[in-house]
Amino acid sequence: MTSRAMTLAGLFLLLLTPGTGGSQVPGTDGAGDHGGPHGLDGHGANATNKAFPVLSFDYKHVQMPFEISLWVLLASLMKLGFHLIPRLSSIVPESCLLIVVGLLVGGLIRVVGEDPPILGSQLFFLCLLPPIILDAGYFLPIRPFTENVGTILMFAVVGTLWNAFFVGGLLYGVCQLEGTHLGRVDLMACLLFGSIISAVDPVAVLAVFEEIHINELLHILVFGESLLNDAVTVVLYHLFEEFAAAGGVTIKDVFLGIVCFLVVALGGILVGAIYGVLAAFTSRFTSHTRVIEPLFVFLYSYMAYLSAEVFHLSGIMALIACGAVMRPYVEANISHKSHTTIKYFLKMWSSVSETLIFIFLGVSTVAGQHHWNWTFVICTVILCLVARVLGVVGLTFMINKFRIVKLTTKDQFIIAYGGLRGAIAFSLGYLLDKVHFPMRDMFLTAIITVIFFTVFVQGMTIRPLVDLLAVKKKQETKRSINEEIHTQFLDHLLTGIEDICGHYGHHHWKDKLNRFNKKYVKKCLIAGERSKEPQLIAFYHKMEMKQAIELVESGGGVKIPSAMPSTVSMQNIQPKKPTERALPQLSKSREEEIRKILRTNLQKTRQRLRSYNRHTLVADPYEDGWNDMFLKRRRVMELGKKISELNNYLTVPAPAPDSPTMARARLASEFQPLYIKPKSDSIPTIQVDLASPQSPDSVNMVDEFNKPSKPTEAEEEEGLMMKAPSSSADQKERKRDKEDGVEQQRLARCLSDPGPSAEDDEDEPFLP
Amino acid sequence: MGAFHSNPAEQTYRDLAEKTGFSVEQIWILHNRFKQLSHDEEMLRRDDFKAIPDLACNPIRSQIIEAFFDQRNFQTNSDGTAHEIGFEEFLTVMSYFRPPSLNMTQEEKEDLRRAKLRFLFNMHDTDNDGTITLEEYRHVVEELLSRSGAIGQETAKGITDAAMLEVASTSVGHMGPDDVYEGITFEHFLKILKGIEIESRMHIRFLNMDTTVLCK
Over the Cα atoms of chain B, what is R_g? Predict the structure, then answer.
């Protein structure tokens, strides 16, 4: 305490004498060495007045966070750099480039004389891996996954087991050969090594497959396999580790191993599902605290992962289960802003994680101690390849007996070739205890070689091979409403036929699960009215919104959205009415009327400007405008007949304001930038305010345009493009009259940033 | 399956197998089911279908039942509806749900696809005029949403309109303001459902139908 006081006193004194000083460490408790004596010296009888240190260098204080940030910054800059060189990123997959960068950085650090850091297992498993897996699990396409789950499980479980034993066993045989000097490596160690190296790595698979855009089936097969084989890997790893330490193995141990596998896998899924349900339930009550909604999603998922790891269950499976279970309910409950936040954050974290992992792999290669043994390494690589090919071919032969859509040879090749190894293998190898496994360095060298081989050679050549073999690529087409109707129709039809046959098949159980979900689960976990919305309607509303946004972006006016480049419109479909002749085009007077009506509408929906405050983020408009919405809807119904005259557009009843589809569609539309074009006076322009409805700026603007007008019956032109439901000023779509350039600029400024291209199929509901 | 004693039925089974493409075993299983549903009578009626408990909560139940009695699906070039059907007709309708076999040529796959889509088309086109009109399509969507209460009925109209518009746009392209799109013809129907792989999706696994399960 006294030294502190002395330091402060000394500082005051030294203020008077400028100059350079020694490094003072203000605030450190054990400052007896530094602060105190200096202060004392300065204050005391010392004649040499130490100048007050205007500038001091204190690195130790911030070393840890600083270095972490530096690494992350480096990773992000690298990522940036690669995409600025287009030719490079089309030839070499990103993962390879990042490993090379890692090698360079590691070499640099070595040259400088420091010890480059190794990818610690703690860091990897607890910090770097979860974001990637959560991102994969949360956005897992459920329908293709469940349709192929049998195949995926076969590959994941049986395939990995086969790989592990094949590689481990044959390596042991090789080690036993004379002349390899590998006699020390016993069977257990070999099998352990086999189990480490045999698992297909989700990070590497994601990194490579993302760029080649193969068709959904192959993608989900390889990717699903890489996710689900975690359970097998975990069990085998711990099993062989125990056995290697214990010495012998009995039948009982084998049996326990199998039981352990079931426990690990099912336990992991159970833990994940529990946390998922908890998260869904929590999200039901977050309507007043929207700001922290994304946090719940992340926290619950991370807790699921950690809880599973506590019991040595499969953390990856827990994470996947948690994300997949909570998603449909959480999405129905949270605001669209939170949804965007979750999406962006997950993508960001997983992207940075992935980059860091690959860079660290490169650095660790330079840093680690290696023990290169030609025989061992070469044999490992060859055996891995052979095992993979044999495994895939053999399994496909068996699986094809049960599949309707058989896997062709091309498919098998891609599946085999896509079995990449990655950082998980490295980390598991790194975890090995040096005492029990003296050959650890050799193992690590071999693992790194295999990783390099798969990532570089297979990663680089898979794209030209995919093109060469003309493998089917991902369909970029959007789902149409007709396809959706018929998909639903088919589901019910097939369920019905199964019931007639008396065959409790696939569709029957799926239907039962759906009904259970609708009847009980949704009521518990989804707040309010949204629990009742059927899926076809959800899809339809989403599609409407997207079309509306597209229409606006194409310049507005009386144009049909570019998605349907034809002159067909509603009047062609409606049977000819004997009475009033349909107007082919909006007449000028009509336009005036519309404009007038909308203006009066807008005036009635003023909203106070709310200041932005972390604690009072503007609430969801749905809650606010509920009553108004009802009134509006009734008026809208009354207007139905009148609108049908103006049948240039789809006649669309307003979707329920709190429907999750509105939220989802909003999300989809949010990413599309709004292009403002100068409008002529005559055409009523549709300007969509893509700023979030809650942004005060947008509201302000609306108020500014209100001109005093006759209070006509507040009518809304239902027929003229999809109108948003709620009455409050924060409607997403509205027809407004904007000739003023200033307003246009203002409008532009309050748009949310266009983000990465919205993916259409992410928002697929659970069990479609 | 176990050995079934040879009887004159076996010959009919073989004929049916040739005609519909099922294996004799599958036909035997289906025949058992048929007898169970019809309470050992020769012919099956609508009421027998309605008595199946699981079918009660299916929103398109009536349409499925009608499909069984629709003579267009019997491959006999007749139309209209029957009051009761025999086993052969039952089997014929069931044969629309067979999966494609592994060694099918592209042509055969295309034929299978057309046959299945024709079945679907017949289900929608209730008045048998060769087109699915707006009213008929609306009825389909309403049935699909029939379990969803009032919300379903309101939006059914909107959904149908959007769907028809889409078909018209993709099939016809350009229509003047006075033209009227009469309805979805079979060719248009084929076109809009190109995205769904019907031949692999519209099937029931007849592989392991256990007779014990059939007892209800």
Answer: 20
Q: How close A535 comes to chain B (CA, Å)?
A: 9
Whether B115 shows a pLDDT value over 60: the answer reads yes
- Contact between A25 and A53 under an 8 Å Cβ cutoff? The reply is no
Q: Which two tokens stand for residue A531?
A: 């629990």
Residue A682 sits at φ, ψ, to 5 deg, of -75, -30
Q: What single string gives the DSSP state of each residue in B134-178? A: HHHHHHHHHHHTGGGHHHHHHHHHHHHHHHHHHHHHHHT----TT
Cβ separation A493–B213 shorter than 8 A: no
- Looking at this protein, which amino acid is placed at residue A429? G
Q: Judging by DSSP bridges, how do beta strands B184-185 and A18-19 pair with one another?
A: unpaired
CA pseudo-torsion sign A693, A699, A702, A706: positive
B 91-150 residues with CB below 8 A of A?
94, 97, 99-100, 102, 120, 123, 134, 140-141, 144-145, 147-149
B15-22 LR contacts (CB < 8 Å, sep 24+): B16/B88, B16/B91, B19/B92, B20/B91, B20/B92, B20/B94, B20/B95, B21/B95, B21/B98, B22/B91, B22/B94, B22/B95, B22/B98, B22/B206
Give the confidence band of A179 by pLDDT, cuts at 50, 70, 90.
Answer: low
CA separation for the pair B197, A719 (Å, rounded): 35
**Radius of gyration for chain A, computed over Cα atoms and rounded to the nearest angstrom:** 32
Residue indicated by tokens 């969509």: A688
- Please provide residue A419's backbone torsions phi and psi, each rounded to the nearest 5 degrees: -80, 80
Tell me if A507 sits within 8 A of B58, measured CB to CB: no
Minimum distance, in Å, between the CA of residue B7 and any CA atom of chain A: 24
Tell whether the torsion through CA atoms of B151, B152, B153 and B154 is positive or negative. positive
CA distance A700 to A611: 12
Q: Between chains, do A655 and B193 touch, taking CB under 8 Å as contact?
A: no
**Cβ separation B165–A489 shorter than 8 A:** no
Question: How high is the mean pLDDT of chain A?
Answer: 72
What number of residues does chain B have? 216
Task: Name which of B159, B172, B182, B206 to mutate to probe chain A: the one with the most chain A Cβ atoms within 10 A of its Cβ.
Answer: B159
Task: Say yes or no for a CB contact (<8 Å) between A492 and B58.
Answer: yes
For the whole model, what pTM was predicted? Answer: 0.69
Name the residue among A621, A597, A536 with its Cα closest to residue A720.
Answer: A597
User: Rounded to a whole number, what is the distance in Å from the CA of B214 to chain A's nearest CA?
Assistant: 5
Q: Is A651 on the interface with B (CB under 8 A)?
A: yes
Interface contact B214-A502, CB threshold 8 A: yes
Query: What are the pLDDT digits (tens) for A217-275?
Result: 888 999 899 988 888 888 888 888 877 777 667 788 888 888 988 898 899 999 999 99
Residue of B172, B200, B214 with shortest CB distance to A404:
B200
Q: Tell me what pLDDT residue A30 has.
A: 38
Q: Do A573 and B164 touch (CB under 8 A)?
A: yes
Closest chain B CA to residue A560: B169
- Rounded Cα–Cα distance for residues A26 and A23 (Å): 9
For residues A339 and A670, what is the distance between their CA atoms, to the nearest angstrom? Answer: 11
In 3D space, the residue among A401, A396, A448 whose CA is nearest the CA of residue A424 turns out to be: A448
Q: Inter-chain contact A532–B148, Cβ cutoff 8 Å?
A: yes
Interface of B with A in 45-64 (CB under 8 A): 49, 52, 54-55, 57-61, 64
The residue with tokens 């707040």 is A527
CA A314 to chain centre: 20
In terms of Cα–Cα distance, which of B21, A84, B23, A265 is closest to B10? B23
Question: B190 in contact with A at a CB cutoff of 8 Å?
Answer: no
Tell me which residue has tokens 């086993």.
B87
Chain A, window 388-407: residues with a beta carbon less than 8 angstroms from a chain B beta carbon: 404-406
